């Protein structure tokens, strides 16, 4: 396939600006890998002459009016698929009461495979429709349901990390939703690893991810064994860290022999370059430096952090400290399955942080989009495969249409209505002066602040079209 027209992505190591290519052509081979990237392309014929193997290629083109562009697929580095039906339902709760009131009962219901099927198929379809081409999923403690989530991602074509949640601490977890023992946590994790090995032997699309829920949910024995399993298998890991003040206190009580939350994970061999830490709001400087020195990654979840009154993560501080950051929806602590919403919340939350910590904490639209794509790719260890458009990378992309966020001077239906209204004063200049003046940076900002999944016209993963609006 040759994709032709306007392409926008973040440069590989430059978060503060976007690279816009208005007359581009990208050739994607049958393995879903980008074969060529050409700029200043006047016509497709010249491209086909240059790349004869694309002679019979399908052509997918953005509209020439400057209202559409290709953008890298979004990477959701932290989402709880079983919590999807709870999105929006959190009341005034905060983390620890929210877990007990809404979350554990919901997750427990996935002991039924038919419940799991309904929830997981809708969650995967909906995140794809919002342009999420890669997701790091927390599942539940149930092996059959977790394996089903892997099957559904594989069938739908979503790139995914699927983690069977480990939680064996009987004093913390409810009776109705708890592993029997640390050994059961490990054994069931291994069953889920084996299943994914069967359906996707090289983890090309779907990979297992070792998932201790968070330190309080796990015994020291489980954390230690999961750390060993991570080392033996080389698999990625995910957990939560320092999300809520009471949670941080609880970790101090449960693990008094360790100086900090980050040191608990480090002590069990879990603070590695393959660890994705969700939230990271209340880290000390020492913890941040430890995370940086281990090259563990952070998933910033601003919608959830706001909804559950968790706090405002200091993303600029983390980035300045050299820590790798990506974005997560954290459904259903976060109420929206959309990474575009997380991008928007990233800029807004950073402005609240700026009120106390200084103006330099503000994150721009460009930086937030970087975190949603290149940053996320680094967090999940796929920065050489996804997150941008370069030769050798895989075609994980979305086609964005801005027709609904008023960035065009073309005629649109509302004008007919307006023409019937008799204006008292002088008529304003024509619509072309009102809409259609925007630079590409302006258009992207309008998309981020006013757009939603209606702007996501098509989504591809590894070259396969996995979602289409029409
Ligand atoms: N900490 C432990 N479990 C969870 C969870 O499901 N969601 C969030 N946001 N934090 C957690
Ligand atoms: Fe979470």
Automatic annotation (TrEMBL):
EC top class named in words: hydrolase
SUPFAM superfamilies associated with the record: Composite domain of metallo-dependent hydrolases (SSF51338), Metallo-dependent hydrolases (SSF51556)
GO biological process, one term: guanine catabolic process
Record GO terms (molecular function): guanine deaminase activity; zinc ion binding
UniProt entry keywords in alphabetical sequence: Hydrolase, Metal-binding, Phosphoprotein, Zinc
Catalytic activity: guanine + H2O + H(+) = xanthine + NH4(+)
InterPro entries: Amidohydro-rel, Guanine_deaminase, Metal-dep_hydrolase_composite, Metal_Hydrolase, Metallo-dep_hydrolases
Coiled-coil portions: none
E.C. number(s) listed in UniProt: 3.5.4.3
Domain Amidohydrolase-related intervals: 71-466
Cofactor names: Zn(2+)
GO CC annotations, alphabetized: cytosol
Signal peptide limits: none
Pathway the protein contributes to: Purine metabolism; guanine degradation; xanthine from guanine: step 1/1
Cofactor stoichiometry and binding remark: Binds 1 zinc ion per subunit.
Keyword Metal-binding among record annotations: yes
Pfam families documented for this protein: Amidohydro_1
Function: Catalyzes the hydrolytic deamination of guanine, producing xanthine and ammonia.
Assembly and binders: Homodimer.
NCBIfam families listed in its UniProt record: guan_deamin
Protein family membership: Belongs to the metallo-dependent hydrolases superfamily. ATZ/TRZ family.
Name by which UniProt lists this protein: Guanine deaminase
Taxonomic lineage from the root: Eukaryota, Fungi, Dikarya, Ascomycota, Pezizomycotina
């Amino acid at each position: 396939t040759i994709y032709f027209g306007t392409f926008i992505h973040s440069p590989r190591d430059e978060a503060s600006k976007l690279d816009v290519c208005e007359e581009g052509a990208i050739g994607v081979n049958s393995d879903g890998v980008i074969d060529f990237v050409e700029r200043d392309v006047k016509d497709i014929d010249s491209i086909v002459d240059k790349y004869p193997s694309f002679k019979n290629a399908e052509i997918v083109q953005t509209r020439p009016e400057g209202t559409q562009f290709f953008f890298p697929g979004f990477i959701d580095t932290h989402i709880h698929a079983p919590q999807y039906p709870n999105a929006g339902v959190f009341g005034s709760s905060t983390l620890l009461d929210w877990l007990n009131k809404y979350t554990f009962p919901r997750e427990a219901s996935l002991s039924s495979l038919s419940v799991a099927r309904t929830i997981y198929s809708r969650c995967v379809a909906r995140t794809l429709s919002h342009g999420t081409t890669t997701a790091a999923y927390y599942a539940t403690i149930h092996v059959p349901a977790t394996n089903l989530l892997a099957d559904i991602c594989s069938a739908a074509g979503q790139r995914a990390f699927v983690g069977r949640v480990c939680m064996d601490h009987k004093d913390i977890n409810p009776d109705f939703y708890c592993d029997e023992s640390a050994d059961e946590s490990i054994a069931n994790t291994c069953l889920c690893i084996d299943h994914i090995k069967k359906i996707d032997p090289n983890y090309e699309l779907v990979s297992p991810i070792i998932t201790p829920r968070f330190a309080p949910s796990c015994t020291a024995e489980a954390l230690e064994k999961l750390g060993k399993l991570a080392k033996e298998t080389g698999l990625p890991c995910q957990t939560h860290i320092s999300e809520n003040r009471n949670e941080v206190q609880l970790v101090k009580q449960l693990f008094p022999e360790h100086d900090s939350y980050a040191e608990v994970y480090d002590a069990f061999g879990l603070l590695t370059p393959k660890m994705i830490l969700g939230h990271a709001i209340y880290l000390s400087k020492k913890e941040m430096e430890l995370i940086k020195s281990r090259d563990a990654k952070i998933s910033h979840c601003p919608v959830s952090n706001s909804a559950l009154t968790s706090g405002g993560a200091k993303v600029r501080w983390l980035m300045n400290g050299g820590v790798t950051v990506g974005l997560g929806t954290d459904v259903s602590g976060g109420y929206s399955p959309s990474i575009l919403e997380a991008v928007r919340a990233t800029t807004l939350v950073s402005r609240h942080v700026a009120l106390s910590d200084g103006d330099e904490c503000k994150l721009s639209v460009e930086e937030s989009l970087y975190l949603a794509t290149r940053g996320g790719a680094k967090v999940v260890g796929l920065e050489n495969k996804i997150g941008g458009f370069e030769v050798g990378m895989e075609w994980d992309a979305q086609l964005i249409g801005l027709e609904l966020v008023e960035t065009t001077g073309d005629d649109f239906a509302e004008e007919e209505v307006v023409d019937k209204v008799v204006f008292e004063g002088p008529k304003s200049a024509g619509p072309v002066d009102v809409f259609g003046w925007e630079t590409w940076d302006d258009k992207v900002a309008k998309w981020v602040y006013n757009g939603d999944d209606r702007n996501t016209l098509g989504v591809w993963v590894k070259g396969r079209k996995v979602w289409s609006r029409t």
